[in-house]
Amino acid sequence: MKSAVIVFPGSNREPDAARAIRLAGGDDPVMVWHTDTELPPVDLVMIPGGFAHGDYLRAGAIAARSPIMRAVADYAARGGYVLGVCNGFQVLTEARLLPGALMRNACLTFVCRKIRLKVENTNAFTRDYERGAVVTYPCAHHDGNYRADDETIARLEGEGRVALRYVDNPNGSANDIAGIVNETGNVLGMMPHPENAVEPLLGSTDGLPLFTGMVASVASGDSPELPRRPLLDRLIHRNVSPGA
Ligand SMILES: NC(=O)CC[C@H](N)C(=O)O
User: Fold this and answer.
1) 197 near 166, Cβ under 8 Å?
2) Is any atom of ligand 1 closer than 6 Å to the C-beta of 59?
3) Residue 120 CB neighbours (<10 A)
4) How far is CA 229 from CA 60, 74, 79, 174, in A?
5) Is 26 contained in some domain?
6) pLDDT-derived band of residue 154, with 50, 70 and 90 as boundaries?
7) 233 CA from centroid of ligand 1 (Å)
8) How many domains does one find in the chain?
9) Where does the record place the catalytic residues (predicted)?
10) What atom in ligand 1 is closest to the CA of residue 86?
């Protein structure tokens, strides 16, 4: 699997992202700087954690307007897989590739600890987990409180787009939402850090199946479990994804 990891000034988890991708069997990712205007030919784009532009204005707001994000939006619109973790999730909501917003944690403090999550739905990203499995990942954020209007939350729930839910909600997120996918199921954003739970030395290997699942989805060319993916999208994806 060929992948790109997007790097902004203030990103800090790009080496962890690269390591997780490699451990799952992917090629060494290409690091892409935020001022670039094009993506290399890849099967997956990952937006890593950190504090892009120091979280000024709102976490992810400046990064979402970076030149590279136009290319990421085009890539996602063509059906390419995009994973945003923590600050990456914030960037994806600010870029409107995912609905809703990540607000200040309800406790008003930075939360940095291991948390338990329930895998709510198996999709192109979570296919290597049993549905309903409870996994442990670390989380480390001050703006992880997922919020959206009632209609959006109802849609996310009704369409099976809540991928991960907190068992012990650390930040006040609506409906305990920890991760969601877009309408076509090819963009996943999540606050906890699966890339920091990929080897025993880190205290958990529970994050590794997320990465092996993405490698498997790329290898199979598509995932039959993508929720309501329009036929046209699937065809376009086959044509543009080198891994398809
Ligand atoms: N670990 C991270 O990606 C931090 C996310 C974000 N900047 C926050 O603290 O809310």
Assistant:
1) no
2) yes
3) 22
4) 27, 17, 9, 25
5) yes
6) very high
7) 32
8) 1
9) 86, 193, 195
10) 3
Q: Indicate which atom in ligand 1 lies nearest the CA of residue 50.
A: 3
Beta bridge partners of 81: 44
Q: How many CB atoms lie within 10 A of CB 1?
A: 21
How deeply is 56 buried, as exposed, middle or buried, from its count of CB atoms within 10 A (0-12, 13-18, 19+)?
exposed
Give the model confidence (pLDDT) of 46-91 as tens digits: 999 999 999 999 999 999 999 999 999 999 999 999 999 999 999 9
In the reported structure, the alpha carbon of residue 71 is separated from the centroid of ligand 1 by a whole-number distance in angstroms of 23
Answer yes or no: is 207 within a domain: yes
Catalytic residue among 34, 142, 193, 237: 193
- CA–centroid distance, 84 to ligand 1, in Å, is 12
Bridge partners, 11 (sequence order): 50
Closest residue by CA, ligand 1 atom 7: 51
d(CA 128, CA 102): 27
**What's the domain range around 29?**
3-220
Q: What CATH number is associated with residue 205?
A: 3.40.50.880
User: Is 38 annotated as catalytic?
Assistant: no
Instruction: Indicate whether 84 belongs to any domain.
Output: yes
The model's pTM: 0.91
Task: Count CB atoms within 10 A of the CB of residue 231.
Answer: 7
Task: Give pLDDT, residue 196.
Answer: 98
User: Among residues 86, 120, 139, 237, which one is catalytic?
Assistant: 86
If you write DSSP's letter for every residue of 120-185 in order, what string do you get?
A: ----TTTTTS-TT-EEEEEEEES--EEE--HHHHHHHHHTT-EEEEESS-SS--GGGEEEEE-TTS
Question: Is 229 inside any structural domain?
Answer: no
